Amino acid sequence: MLNRTWLSTFKTLVEVGHFTQTAEKLFMTQPGVSQHVSKLEQACGHPLLTRYQKRFDLTEQGRLMYQYACQIEQQESDLAEAMQLDSPHIGECKLACSGAIALYLYPKLLDLQSRHPQLQLPVEAAPNTSILSGVHEGRLDFGIVTTIDHPELYTIAPLGDEELCLILPKSLAMSGLSFDDLNRVGLIAHPDAERYLNLYFSQCGESELEQLNADAFYRSGYMNQIHQILLPVSKGLGFTILAQAAIESSEFREDLVVYQPSKPVKLPLSLVHKAQRQLPARKRLVRDYIIEQFVSE
């Protein structure tokens, strides 16, 4: 890595055009300026100046070094300005959540972005474990999750509950379900299906279902696109489980049946970001806006 002090001295020398005047400007001696240039030449392995009498010209390598020194100075200036700016309406904020939550929240985030076009708000639909790891590793700024394995790693804001729905084709419209009923049509799996099913079976209050395990079911299909998961269910090709928001926004909802359990199964939703991380203004704005969308429901 090139010494920043040598670079700065060299840049000033090129702009002033004279060793003595450069020394005066930098409060150095003339031999000190010459020494900085010589050390820079040694570090890069090329002569930077062609000296004659009391003047000099830049070599080709010297011209490239001067351009590099200017770029470094500009980058430092831009960084300092950006750190001072900290605008709530400029910059990127990355969020991940379940596909069902994305269906509800993404249009609202677009409304915020429409008001502040210099905000970038990419949203990723992902399973719970991927969201948590992404937030912890710094790839994501925020995540909306239902379970948190190591809460000490995150700052957590409760958002309310999401209801899980066991979604059936109309051929299974009945009260009281058994393993055989469900396995006959098979499971339309998705990234969160097994976790959701096991939670649902253990909490729904149905004696026929509480001992079931998602691993035991025949898989009649798999889909990781939230808009398409319910298509095969609507055609009678399987059952699945999703948050209620996914059904409400689905074009196939008229061809679906939601099973009514003895006890509704609700999962707590939380907005998380990495613990002990100081949030810039734009991320505080997005955090507060997301919380508002759920609290107002």
TrEMBL record:
Key words of the record: DNA-binding, Transcription, Transcription regulation
InterPro entries found in the cross-reference section: LysR_HTH_N, LysR_subst-bd, WH-like_DNA-bd_sf, WH_DNA-bd_sf
Every HTH lysR-type domain range: 1-59
Keyword match Nuclease: no
Keyword Transcription: yes
One Pfam family in the UniProt entry: HTH_1
GO MF term set: DNA-binding transcription factor activity; transcription cis-regulatory region binding
CDD domains named among the record's database cross-references: PBP2_LTTR_substrate
Homology family: Belongs to the LysR transcriptional regulatory family.
Name assigned to this protein: LysR family transcriptional regulator
Species whose genome carries this gene: Vibrio astriarenae
